[in-house]
Amino acid sequence: MSFIEKINRGLMSVSAIWAFLLAVIITLDVTGRGLFDAPLTGTLEIIVNSIVVIAFLQIAFAVRSKSMLRADFVVHLLPKPVQKALEVFGHLCGAAIFALLCYAVLEPMADAFTSGEYEGEGALRVPTWPIYAVIAGGAALAAINYLYMLVETLQDRGGEDV
Length: 162
Prior knowledge:
Keywords: Cell inner membrane, Cell membrane, Membrane, Transmembrane, Transmembrane helix, Transport. It is found in: Cell inner membrane. A hairpin with a 6-residue loop joins strand 1 and strand 2. Strands 1-2 form a two-stranded antiparallel ribbon. Helix 2 runs parallel beside helix 4 and helix 3 runs antiparallel to helix 4. With 162 residues, the chain is mostly helical. The model has no long low-confidence stretch (mean pLDDT 92).
C-alpha cells in the first residue's frame, strides 16, 4: 500500500470515529433534552462544523476507491480508446476542481487565523481556521489522488480498487 493510500485510510478511520462520537453527542443531547430538560451545551456548533470536517476527511478515500458519484451506464458501450480518453478527462477535471477548491480556501483560512474568526455564540465558540485547513488538506489530497489515478490510467494499469 502506498503512502498516500495509508493517509487516505487513516483519514477515513478518523472520520469514522468522529462520526461515531458525533452520534454519541447527539444521543446525549436528545436524552438530556428529553429526560432532564437540559440539552448538551454546544451541540449545534459541534454538529454544524463536524459535518464539513467529516466529509473532507473522507473525500480522498472516496476518490481513490472510485466511490465518487459517476454516471458510467453508457460509457461501457463505447470503444476502449474512447473509454480511456473519458477516464483521463475525468481524472484531469477532478484534479483541477479539487486543486481550485484547495486554492480557494487558503485565503479565507489565513484571514480566519489572523482575525481569530470563530463560529457560534455564547455556549461554544469554534475557531473556523481548522475547518478551512481540513477542507484545504482534503481537497489537496483528493487532487493528488486524481493525478495518481491519471498516471495509472495513462500507464494502462487502470488502478486497483482500494
